[in-house]
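Appendix B, record 7
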Amino acid sequence: MIESKNTVERTLSILETVAHSTSGLTNSDISRRLKLPKSSASYILRILENRGYLTRETNSGKYRLGLKLMGLTRESATHTDIREVAKPIMESFVKRTSLSTHLAVLDNGRAVYVEKVENPNSFIKMDIWVGHRLPVHSTAIGKVLVSNMTEEDVVAILELRGMEKKAPRTITNPKRYLKELEKVRTYGFALDNEENSPGVRCIASPVFDAQGKIVAALGTSDTIIRLDESHLPKIVELVKKAANQISNLIGYDKTI
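Structure tokens (predicted):
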């Protein structure tokens, strides 16, 4: 256990040291600065390079931060930016509809809430909180988040996470689920019609980045009594409009 802890600390120290260097560092530089045996530094550096967290210049042998690490940083920044951009639009949606709204992203085959705005005057509170992770097969936000993936990637997620029957109307057949995703792509929104929780209906629409990639899903949930058939078309359009506003603010232009 102690050896594992030391290895983790050394790995993080190496990443931090390389990150603070403007011109890159060799194995010798890193070993000297951190007072590490060259063999230990070399072992860790080789793993970090193989995993893409560091890159090594052929001629000089200097290490720099790799694209994978910078990519993870960009992903985190993107989610933060989306939350900041989305919050006022979500607040406006709540004022206009009296319905709570939430923003979710895909993480390791699950839909994860990263922001929510509730109607403070509502007597009904949805069981939603930031950080809450939900399956993609039984939720409107989940359907949206995987709707632009290839069938192979979607099936891989379903095989990994399963298709638990969360409610009597949950879709548990992969082929039927893929058909459902076709509707999402065609109409620009997803519906969870009591599929994750009896008596609850959810609507979600995609948020696109500047490259046209779905990076989040904006959704609203309420009882089937409040989100009945007569109100559904109007709420669907408002959800789509709000999601489109967020998309535009983070650089999406569907005309390109």
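Remarks on this record: The beta strands are 54-56, 63-65, 101-107, 110-117, 133-135, 190-193, 200-208, 214-223. The chain has eight helices and eight strands.
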